[in-house]
Amino acid sequence: MNPAQFKQVSEVEWRVAPFGKMRVPAVIYADQALIRDMDDKVFEQLTNVATLPGIVQAAYAMPDAHWGYGFPIGGVAAFDAEEGGVVSAGGVGFDISCGVRTLHTGLTAAEIAPLKQRLADRLFAHVPAGLGSTGQLRLNVSEMDAMLRGGARWAVEHGYGSEADLDRIEEHGCMAGAEPGQVSDQAKRRQRDEIGTLGSGNHYLELQEIVEIYDSKAADRFRLRPGEVVVSIHCGSRGLGHQIGTEFLRQMVIAAPGYGIELPDRELACAPIKSSLGQSYLGAMRAAINCALANRQVITHLTREVFADVFPGTHLSLIYDVSHNTCKQETHTVDGRSRRLYVHRKGATRAFGPGHPALPGDLRDIGQPVLIGGSMGTASYILIGTEAGTTRAFSSACHGAGRSMSRHQATRQWHGRTLVDELASRGILIRSPSLRGVAEEAPGAYKDVSAVVDVADRAGLAHKVAKLSPLVCIKG
């Protein structure tokens, strides 16, 4: 992407003044190298988002931004329902509430090393992964609706984890306002036996060693110590979320003219927040958020079972769980006035700073953990929300490295078996049901996650706390 299309505000902030039908500016957080490597569609899609009714302040793109469906992945936009604001299925994405949760193991890399192969094999056998993967849970109609209302709380009530987990999960494990009745029978059928599964694509369960600490105070509060191992789980709402996205995008495209909405791109399909269609989507989307939270909770339980078997006496406690494909109603200060806004984050992580009432009591004074995933052979990071970030992009940060090439391009350049062997030579064990899937997710197909995280830190979106290096990756 040509930086000349933007006005450079700082080393890591670029702005496009409103032109044409744009209602607000477009802002990208990136350095020179990252913005040059972004595809041109990011500019087009971000400026299109800035034309939507009721958008507030600006349309934002995170440093990992790349081309998406309607909204760029890494896009953030907030809308005011009282000013005709809209909700967009494309602004949330198909994998609703895809997110990351990270857990302590209480073990060091040295302690795990002698049993690493066994641990990798047991996790791969016990946690279903891959396209169309199914789990041992099979929900009937009433159980499905209960799960969609209850989220991780439903999972805990059914023996998958403990109450202590819920305090470290976004929305305390249960998204209010979920309406299972707005979720189609087809979406529910797709999810019937997918709870407790990773799925495919960029989803994973990964063992990671803490290799560097940047902020000792925050690291102490999160109980992060060099040499110790954590487990990160990255997945979402599986087939249910995809079906909801597909169905509502279709409905929103058809309904847009009747609402007087002129779409610059049909993939930006949306509906007024206060409309019946907008409310139906929000109810279904919130149910999908609960589905994702329940899914990660059940996978956590399965992971704990494996660790208890391989390392008796271990207990995996939850550091945090946060999503990066959602629309949430939040309070933000805009032009000195407190406003209730519907914040879309598509491939962008919520990053609340110190003092936010939604945070757990023991973290409220310091800020929210922000979990940034790597790409199988590269580092992941834990950051923390900042006070400065509350005025930048509605307390949002990046969510990962961001793709630099398509999956098709990746399979033409890399072979799965070769990648598995290369990573094994570096001490990283890969377990996956699909070698093609491994090739699609080759580390080289992604941006430099360290460069992305450095920009997020320099821009004040979130502050670096710790760097994590992969040891074992169960890949969908």
Write the layout of secondary structure elements.
Elements: E1 7-10, E2 13-16, E3 26-29, H1 32-37, H2 40-49, E4 55-66, E5 73-79, E6 86-88, E7 99-108, H3 109-112, H4 116-126, H5 141-157, H6 163-166, H7 185-191, E8 204-213, H8 216-222, E9 228-235, H9 238-255, E10 270-272, H10 276-310, E11 318-323, E12 325-334, E13 337-346, E14 349-350, E15 369-372, E16 380-385, E17 396-397, H11 407-413, H12 416-425, E18 429-431, H13 435-440, H14 449-458, E19 462-475
Parallel strand pairs: 3-4, 18-19
Antiparallel strand pairs: 1-2, 2-3, 4-5, 5-13, 6-10, 7-9, 7-11, 8-9, 8-19, 12-13, 14-17, 15-16, 16-19
Helix pairs in contact: 4-10, 5-10, 7-9, 9-10
Short recap of the structure:
This protein has helices at 32-37, 40-49, 109-112, 116-126, 141-157, 163-166, 185-191, 216-222, 238-255, 276-310, 407-413, 416-425, 435-440, 449-458; strands at 7-10, 13-16, 26-29, 55-66, 73-79, 86-88, 99-108, 204-213, 228-235, 270-272, 318-323, 325-334, 337-346, 349-350, 369-372, 380-385, 396-397, 429-431, 462-475. The chain is of the alpha+beta class. A hairpin with a 7-residue loop joins strand 15 and strand 16.
